[in-house]
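TICKET #2291
ISSUE: user wants both folds in one file
ATTACHMENT 1:
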Amino acid sequence: MNAVDRLPAGGTGRRPRADARRNVERLVTAAHAAVAEVGVDVTAHEIARRAGVGIGTFYRRLPSREALLEAVLAELLDEMASVARRAMDDPDPWRGFTDFATAYVQLRAASCGVNDALGGECGLALDPQLARMREYVRLLVAHAHGAGVLRPDVPWEDVAFVLASVTTSTRTVGLRAGADQWWRNLRIVLDGLHAAPGR
């Protein structure tokens, strides 16, 4: 379900007019970009500014800033759960695991808000999505362990933390990270997780 459809209907319960729906769609699009760049602390004023609407329109069309952020982040986390489901179906367990890990880390690298949400302390109602992500990580690790392609001494909880650590700050010891730093970090981490390193 997309973020627009996740938002509660207006107080009348009637189908919104076309222009009202367009405003909601613009607000959702702006919220996606703002959440990625700023994180969950982005203000309603900033989202409205990016959408090209007034703050009054924001609050006429949406129940709250939190409801909008929850809808946007739930959509992103549900998309990630879909990637995990496809990874479970891959006949090659290592390829499925690495495809999921790549998509997961790439999303974390691209969105400050997703990092906030996955940390679980952003104050938004995302518990069902976070529980689903935990379960998929657990299942993917169990699948890779069962196939003998993931180091048996690494529990699924460690995998969750290791994947979260791949996205780093933009600077360290006077160096600036390139746009693909997350990908280079991930390749090193995956090599360390593989039961046969250097594959």
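ATTACHMENT 2:
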Amino acid sequence: MKVLAAMSGGVDSAVAAARAVEAGHEVVGVHLALSRMPGTLRTGSRGCCTVEDSNDAWRACDKLGIPFYVWDFSERFAEEVVDDFVSEYAAGRTPNPCMRCNERIKFAALLDRALALGFDAVVTGHYAKVTEDEAGNKELHRAADWAKDQSYVLGVLTHEQLKHAFFPLADTPSKAEVRAEAERRGLSVAQKPDSHDICFIPDGDTRGWLAERIDMNPGRIVDHEGNDLGEHPGSEAFTVGQRKGLAISRPAPDGRPRFVLQVRPKENKVVVGPKDLLKVDRLEGIKVSWAGVPIPEVITGETFECTVQVRAHADPVAATAHVTSEGTLIATLNEALGGVAPGQTMVLYQGTRVLGQATIDAAYSQAWDPSKV
């Protein structure tokens, strides 16, 4: 099989490529240049896709004896990921840029080009597994190492994309084993730290970065009962669950800290309240997609049992879900979750299988009626 290995410059992608070579596949390595100004991306252990990562990817490919290329996806990355991030915040939502990058860059733009060039699959270092059901349909499942499982950020993959996705680390029991294998293979990235945070915000100051790109105007901060508490510099800079940076001079009557409960950009208002009001038990999702052939209940609109995960490393919560005639995904949670913001992604599972995903458009709590504020 002729495969294209997406080389991030980290240890996972390097070992994944090495295993593909060892399995006898014809492997070509490619690193994605996501910015024409490398200084605008994070560097060191906190970044990804920087110049130093490109050099690390090249060294890994050289060690493996496979061809190496750098593909410039900076323009598409800016449009599909960075601009989307800005527009989502401007609309009062909290997006997941890594999810968008997987969806629109690594498994759309990259895979499309790979197939056009005659490759059979794209290899990545993600911890997830692709299997087949009795009919030969592809399914996406959690990896063997649940602590490193990355099926959540791959929940956006479609059935057609799963046909060409190759995850050699699927059955690896731990990240420590991957690092040990990289050492044995003589790969220089064996002990390279994992990447974290948003790669296109160099200093980690999301609010300051957004302020340069969104026309923010001062507005009011109110509590969950509608009481005016002061002024904010721009609602777009806040996210649900935020505690720091509220700059409220008057303490709550009970002395407890306040958290952002809602961001309302149309009213330019930020609603705050006690932590217990962050708990939600009903989620409505839009932009729904299914990772593989949808289960029958999706087609019929019947309710089905599942688990719901709303963050990459969060614990899944049992729920019942159904798809409305308008295509909205409704999930009723058996256990309330805190700090869930519109714009986040909910991924649905049955057992280890990823059913699909949706962008959260609304999150509700039985303990608080926001329409009264």
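RESOLUTION: both attachments delivered.
EXTRA DETAIL ON ATTACHMENT 2: DSSP finds eight helices and 17 strands in the chain.
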